[in-house]
Specification:
The structure holds two protein chains of two kinds.
Chain A (H helix, E strand, L loop, with lengths): L2 H13 L3 H4 L2 H4 L7 H4 L5 E4 L6 H8 L1 H7 L4 H4 L4 E7 L2 H4 L9 H30 L8 H11 L7 H19 L15 H11 L8 E7 L6 H12 L6 E6 L23 E4 H4 L2 H19 L16 H9 L7 H8 L3 H9 L2 H9 L6 H12 L3 H15 L16 H8 L3 H17 L10 H22 L3 H20 L8 E6 L6 H16 L3 E3 L15 E4 L4 H4 L7 E5 L1 H9 L1 H11 L17 H5 L3
Parallel strand pairs in A: 1-4, 1-5, 2-3, 3-4, 6-9
Antiparallel strand pairs in A: 6-8, 7-8
Chain B lengths: L1 E3 L11 E6 L15 E8 L3 E6 L2 E6 L3 H9 L4 E5 L5 H13 L4 E6 L3 E2 L14 E4 L19 E5 L5 H11 L9 E3 L7 H15 L7 E3 L4 H14 L4 E5 L4 H14 L3 E3 L4 E3 L4 E2 L4 E4 L1 H5 L1
Parallel strand pairs in B: 2-3, 2-6, 6-7, 10-13, 11-12, 13-14
Antiparallel strand pairs in B: 1-17, 3-4, 4-5, 7-17, 8-16, 9-15
Chain lengths: 628, 296
């Protein structure tokens, strides 16, 4: 396969990293995640995860056409299918038609309930029509059943299944006209939410082919429902019974309302539903394996002759070798450091010279070694691998890498290796696909041979570019996207300055918790909204295990800027130490970034002005210079 | 379509009534060659508006066809809808009602001389136009509930200078890359504007590969947009056009005229921006669009 072919295939198989773009290929490339069996039960499930964690892919693969495709579109293989999933993506543009000052929430809930009946009912009968098309030997609804269904949904009479499909479409069109004139006349014929669906499914169950089968409604992008609409669908989930069940996909903090329409009932896990938090299910080890599987399947499709494990194409580098690569020939010690080294006895000097460059840097920069006697002793201890001293070195050595090329042009820290890439992706399958795709394309565009391992430089440049691209994307993700971008730019700059100046500070600070201060209610609300939006759109990670993911507890959790941004800003992708921010500081980072960045850095004993922007951040210079 | 160098060159007949919005930009208070009767829409809410006419203040619910009809019926004479200071969700239902009533209707648009540059200089943000967006929501009276074409969607964003708005709308629609047909205003209000449009939207154009399907229509010509939409629909028979009117106002006018004249079903996707009060500079050309004649 030539390079052009490879690039095209890479773009198709890795570049379409959204389930929505892959269309039917999403089924072909599906890798079953470890939690998949939990979804194939007759219980409501809630899949919670940020964007890019694979919710849509999984739900689409649970749908009847997904399952059919997974069974190679073979009616015989699909004949014993035990469940049928009906996929429904919540469309903001549609559901927002059911809000406005013309009605109160209770009235809108009734109007919305009828709409949801028509939508889910319509999708279900389309499935029945699809099934009939593939299995024409089975009987469909009797005329009595058709009458019953049409009456239940307030539709006109029909004589067969295909007319029933059309009747649902017509019902929606008529309802659309009524909603568009809602301030004048309310619709006269409404159905009670869920009731006609029960009738429809009861009728379907009377058919031989569906007698002992399960039906799932798969509702994706649940966060797009308005609050009262979430209450309405929560009510359906609470009282779903045994006729069918509901599986929902929702962003981590997008399930804003847990109670039902009557206000007293709440949805509780595990009594009412099975909660599947993707952040927990795809923790490091599990995600690494899953990511490898997903990428390998794609690589095999790109080039079946390659016969190579995808992770071997992404070689990494250990800290000592990385220091050698970053420093090049000779350690550029300061005059003070050279004077200190000059105080060593010749025997100790020989030992010092025999150490790795990173070890030497550690020894001369460690604050306790400023005096010749302590320095001499430290060299001896590290050289002899004294456990206490070796441990200290191990704890700090990675953080030192960020300071070796401080203020210099070019790559200042490598982000390379399959292990590093999976950590940058941090449980997000879309990010790993994007990293791999862009790295492969960059490799080919540099004229490197397809199938050979990628250079450290290519991997690093890719990681920076992907970070930048996702930073640019934030603005469009949310109505508060511009604020999110500012927040990430602010936090990223803080962690970058901290990383570049690790000496005499806690190493690898890249997390934060919100605490202290005396925020006003408005500031608290603003901070919580920012954090919630950041987690939903994967600008921030809320750290697993810090707190349960209920809405309202955003303030008490630990957060980190998503590691996908770490290469762009040059801070550590490893989850290490945290600092404390107040709500006021978080809000100030968005409103007055320059002021906030300076204030936070000064508190940690650093000065932003000491640290020029890395090359890749220069485009944002005017942002960091502006006071607003 | 008639173009005038400035408002001072425009004169309306004695029976003209101009429906217009109020706003802080210089072009929102034009001085025409001869006085006219005005209906000033002073409050533009999400589902209603308040207007002043002949010393009377009244309210119209946008999702009430009778209200809209009564509003227009009281206005005798030739209707001019000046969309310059009106939001899409206000002028579009008025225009549709006027056309349904068979009223002779013109639409006015006054270009600015220029736009205020963004102080941040960030890619995708050349001009400083919107305070924020309220987010994608149904336009009152234009809500689409039908999901018949859900798997056959052509997304048609009309591109402007705010790439972040394109990105937001695109994120909501999630169309497939080969089914995105961006429309760029070419020629632009000014020679360099089409380049700014591409620059502001380059990330999304590149990432979705939508640059392959870009269509061009004069930035000040709604009828050219209409023709472009017809071509896109013809090339995608059986697909539903989801149109995002986030570019120029004349482009948006063409978009709203399209389903009315072609009788085709479309869906509008709009993000309801809150405009910055000082986003434009000066008063430019005035365009008068003979919409009734176009619809005939």
């Amino acid at each position: 396969m030539n390079e052009n072919d490879a690039q095209e295939r890479i773009n198709t198989l890795f570049g379409s990293y959204r389930a929505e773009w892959l269309d039917h290929k999403v089924f072909e490339l599906f890798s079953e995640p470890n939690y998949f069996p939990e979804l194939v039960t007759n219980r409501p499930c809630v899949l919670l995860g940020g964007r890019g964690t694979g919710k849509t892919t999984v739900l689409r693969c649970l749908s009847y056409d997904g399952q059919f495709a997974l069974k190679r579109n073979d009616p015989e293989r699909f004949a014993d299918q035990k469940f049928f999933g009906i996929f429904y993506r919540v469309d903001t543009n549609r559901v927002t038609a059911f809000k406005g000052t013309e009605r109160n929430d209770d009235q809108w809930a009734k109007l919305f309930g009828h709409y949801l009946n028509l939508v889910l009912g319509g999708l279900f009968v389309r499935f029945l029509a699809w099934h009939h098309q593939h299995y024409p030997g089975y009987a469909t609804f009797s005329s009595q059943a058709l009458n019953l269904i049409c009456t239940a949904f307030q539709l006109g009479g029909v004589t067969n299944l295909s007319e029933l499909v059309h009747a649902f479409r017509l019902g929606l069109v008529e309802y659309e006209a009524q909603i568009n004139n809602i301030a004048e006349n309310g619709p006269s014929r409404l159905t009670i939410q869920g009731a006609p669906i029960d009738v429809l499914i009861d009728c379907a169950r009377e058919l031989t082919q569906f007698a002992d089968r399960q039906f799932y409604f798969l509702i994706d992008e649940y966060e797009n429902f308005l609050d009262y609409q979430q209450r309405a669908v929560n009510t359906l989930i609470k009282h779903v019974g045994t006729r069918y069940t509901i599986k929902i996909g929702v962003k981590q903090l997008g399930w804003r309302v847990r109670h039902c329409l009557n206000g007293t009932e709440q949805l509780i896990s595990p009594a009412d539903y099975n909660r599947i938090s993707l952040a927990q299910r795809l923790e490091d080890g599990v995600f690494d394996e899953f990511a490898l599987h997903v990428c390998q399947a794609r690589l095999d499709q790109i080039d079946s002759t390659l016969q190579v494990r995808v992770n071997t194409l992404f070689p990494g580098i250990n800290d000592e070798d990385e220091a050698d690569a970053l420093i090049g020939a000779g350690v550029p010690f300061s005059p003070q450091s050279l004077a200190l080294i000059g105080t060593l006895s010749s025997a100790t000097r020989q030992k010092f010279d025999g150490l790795r460059k990173l070890e030497q840097v550690f020894l001369v920069t460690w604050p306790d070694n400023a005096a010749p006697r302590q320095f001499d002793e430290a060299v001896e201890l590290l050289y002899s691998n004294a456990p206490r001293y070796r441990e200290r070195y191990e704890n700090y050595k990675h953080s030192l890498l960020f300071s070796l090329r401080r203020g210099k042009a070019g790559i200042r820290k490598y982000y390379a290796g399959w292990d590093v890439y999976t950590k940058l992706a941090a449980g997000n399958i879309r990010f790993i696909l994007e990293l791999v795709e862009r790295a492969f394309v960059a490799h080919i565009q540099k004229g490197e041979k397809w199938g050979l391992p990628l250079s450290l430089k290519t991997q690093t440049q890719t990681a920076i570019a992907v970070g930048r691209k996702n930073l640019d994307e934030l603005e469009g993700l949310d109505v508060d996207g511009a604020k999110l971008t500012k927040l990430v730019l602010g936090l990223g700059r803080i962690f970058q300055v901290m990383a570049a100046d690790p000496i005499a500070h806690s190493p690898e600070v890249n997390q934060f918790q919100i605490s202290g201060g005396a925020p006003t209610e408005i500031e608290t609300a603003k901070a919580e909204k920012l954090l919630g939006s950041g987690v939903n759109h994967v600008a921030l990670l809320r750290l697993v295990g810090s707190k349960p993911s209920d809405p309202g507890d955003t303030k008490d959790s630990d957060y980190t800027v998503h590691p996908i941004f770490s290469a762009f800003f040059e801070f550590s992708y490893r989850r290490k130490r945290k600092m404390t921010l107040t709500c006021e500081q978080l809000v100030l980072l968005v409103d007055q970034p320059k002021v906030a960045i300076n204030e936070i850095l000064q508190k940690s004993g650093r000065d932003e002005t000491d640290e020029p922007l890395p090359e890749q951040m220069v485009l944002f210079e005017s942002f960091y210079d502006s006071s607003g | 379509m008639q173009a005038y160098a400035s408002p001072a060159d425009v004169s309306f007949g004695s029976d003209a009534v101009i429906i217009r919005g109020t706003g802080p930009e210089p072009r929102h208070t034009p001085v025409y060659a001869a006085p006219a009767r005005y209906v000033d829409i002073t409050v533009q809410d999400s589902d209603s508006f308040v207007y002043h006419y002949e010393a009377k203040r009244s309210y119209v619910a946008l999702r009430n066809r009778t209200h809209l009809k009564e509003f227009l019926t009281q206005l005798a004479g030739n209707l001019f809808i000046d969309m310059t200071a009106l939001s899409h969700h206000i002028w579009a239902p008025i225009l549709r009602t006027a056309l349904m009533l068979g009223r002779t209707t013109r639409v006015l648009y006054i270009e600015p001389e220029g736009y205020v540059r963004s102080p941040t200089g960030v890619e995708g943000e050349i001009f400083d136009l919107s305070e924020r967006i309220n987010g994608v929501a149904a336009i009152p009276g234009f809500a689409s509930l039908s999901d018949e074409f859900e798997d056959r969607i052509c997304f048609v964003p009309m591109l402007g200078f705010e790439g972040k708005r394109t990105a937001h709308v695109w994120e909501q629609v999630q169309p497939q890359g080969n089914k995105i047909y961006p429309i760029i205003g070419l020629p632009g209000f000014r020679l360099e504007f089409p380049f700014y449009t591409v620059q502001s939207n380059q990330r999304i154009l590149h990432e979705t590969q939508a640059w392959k399907n870009v269509r061009y229509a004069a930035a000040n010509n709604p009828f050219s947009v209409y023709d472009t939409l017809c071509e896109i629909q013809e090339a995608n028979t059986g697909s539903l056009l989801k149109i995002a009117p986030i570019g120029t106002k004349p482009h948006a006018l063409g978009a709203f005229l399209y389903p009315l004249k072609s009788r085709r079903t479309v869906e509008f996707v709009y993000d309801f921006p809150i405009r910055k009060s000082d986003r434009t500079i000066g008063v430019g050309k005035v365009f008068v669009y003979r919409v009734s004649e176009f619809m005939a």
